[in-house]
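Sequence in, structure out. Go.
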Amino acid sequence: MAEARDTQARSPGPDIWDFALAHYGAAGVKAAALALQDDHGQCVSFLLWRLWAWRRGLAVSPRTLARASGMARDTETHRLRPLRAERRALAAGASRARALDREIEVERGLLEDLARLPLADAPGGLAPTTLIDALAEAVRAYGAQGDPTALAGHLSALADWSDAAAGSKLGHGGA
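Output:
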């Protein structure tokens, strides 16, 4: 049986943040992520965490996935949506930039908290075999909203761009 990794000891913070920045900055990812957020009610940080875990070949148990989706939903509802609404209501300028900085700080904190959840090396068959399956699993846990066909298209785009950024082919797990 695989041993759970002590994510506290391996200091996931910078690793997951760098990973998120690299993926979010890849061509096309921002548009897909914002569509998932705005059109389908998804938490981008939660999806990036799931992508991060899958890329590292880490299994996310149903219990951890439920805990993570609850953490993400709570942060999204009580902190990120109000900050996002505040930022979007502001005209361009210093106040809007400060609002964006606060929003990013909360997103980073959420990613780092999620990365500290118990994960394990995924022996054959325990983790989804494709990235799209891992992302779909996360969407189901968080709660899918909107047009299923459009949602699937955005998830597929996110997976494709992630594969391009990682230099791998869809369906192959691990870093």
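Check: Helices lie at 12-24, 29-40, 44-55, 62-89, 94-115, 131-142, 148-166. The radius of gyration is 16 Å.
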